[in-house]
């Protein structure tokens, strides 16, 4: 039995959301918003990289910094692998570099969450808006 | 592993030294810039270079001005209390 239009719509929204989470900007990219996608990708990756540069990979710690980690994980699921590595290798960072690093990586994650929601909303609008016929 | 690769990885395994003086507040600027850019990338109907740069700059300046005013108010409050 072929999938109903509503099922297709849900699959599309989920795909866009998942892609946008996997790679920042990918959700907009598949919606053919290439400029938007490039801006989002470069800015979020750069913000995240600055956070890691300042505080080292030790700022991603799912054990001692759960609140920051919950924001950081929104960057990409790859952050979970990094978090597991830092816990296993016992990377730890303290003081101001830790604060700045966590803020940068956390904000990068929250910005990506904004982009995920925006991409899903755009995909939803494109399906529901009248075709103009 | 090449020396360049090893050096690039090493830069992410050692934290930088950041002072706790007022110059540490300058770390706010790149973050405010990225917030302004991403927010405007999601908000604008069409992305055109000139308009996008203008809108992002206005938002960036608004954030910085608001943060500065907040900092000054807090400084004045702390001066009054202590």
In short:
The complex is a heterodimer of chains A (133) and B (82). Chain A is mostly helical. In chain A, 74% of the residues lie in helices and 0% in strands.
Task: Set out the fold topology.
The complex is a heterodimer of chains A (133) and B (82).
Chain A (H helix, E strand, L loop, with lengths): L4 H18 L3 H5 L3 H22 L10 H7 L5 H12 L5 H34 L5
Chain B lengths: L2 H8 L17 H16 L5 H33 L1
**Overall radius of gyration of chain A:** 17 Å
Categorize the overall geometry of chain A. elongated
Biggest interface pair, counts: A-B, 33 and 23 residues
Q: How many strands of chain A? A: 0
Structural class of chain A: mainly alpha
Outline of chain B: flat
* Uncertain regions spanning at least 5 consecutive residues of chain B: none
As a percent range, the share of strand residues of chain A is under 5%
| Weakly predicted, low-confidence segments of chain A | none
Number of helical stretches of at least 4 residues of chain B: 3
How many separate domains of chain A? Answer: 1
Distance between the termini of chain A: 29 Å
User: Which sheet architecture does the biggest sheet of chain A show?
Assistant: none
Mean pLDDT of chain B: 88
What is the domain tally of chain B? 1
Write down the secondary-structure element order of chain A: HHHHHH
| Total of DSSP H or I helical runs spanning 4+ residues of chain A | 6
Largest sheet of chain B: none
Q: Give the helix/strand class of chain B.
A: mainly alpha
Oligomeric composition of the shown chains: heterodimer
Distance separating the two termini of chain B: 57 Å
């Amino acid at each position: 039995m072929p999938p109903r239009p509503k099922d297709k719509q849900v699959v599309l929204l989920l795909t866009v959301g998942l892609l946008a989470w996997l790679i920042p900007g990918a959700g907009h990219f598949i919606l053919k918003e290439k400029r938007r996608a490039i801006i989002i990708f470069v800015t979020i990756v750069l913000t995240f990289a600055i956070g890691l540069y300042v505080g080292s990979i030790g700022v991603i710690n799912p054990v001692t910094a759960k609140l920051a980690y919950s924001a950081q994980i929104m960057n990409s699921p790859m952050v979970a692998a990094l978090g597991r590595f830092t816990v296993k290798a016992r990377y730890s960072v303290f003081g101001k570099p830790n604060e700045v690093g966590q803020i940068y990586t956390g904000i990068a994650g929250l910005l990506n969450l904004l982009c995920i929601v925006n991409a899903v909303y755009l995909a939803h609008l494109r399906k529901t808006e009248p075709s103009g016929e | 592993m090449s020396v360049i690769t090893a050096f690039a990885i090493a830069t992410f395994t050692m934290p930088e030294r950041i002072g706790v003086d007022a110059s540490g507040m300058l770390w706010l600027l790149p973050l405010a810039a990225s917030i302004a850019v991403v927010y405007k990338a999601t908000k604008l109907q069409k992305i055109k270079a000139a308009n996008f740069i203008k809108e992002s700059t206005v938002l960036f300046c608004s954030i910085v001005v608001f943060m500065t005013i907040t900092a000054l108010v807090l400084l004045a409050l702390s001066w009054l209390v202590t």
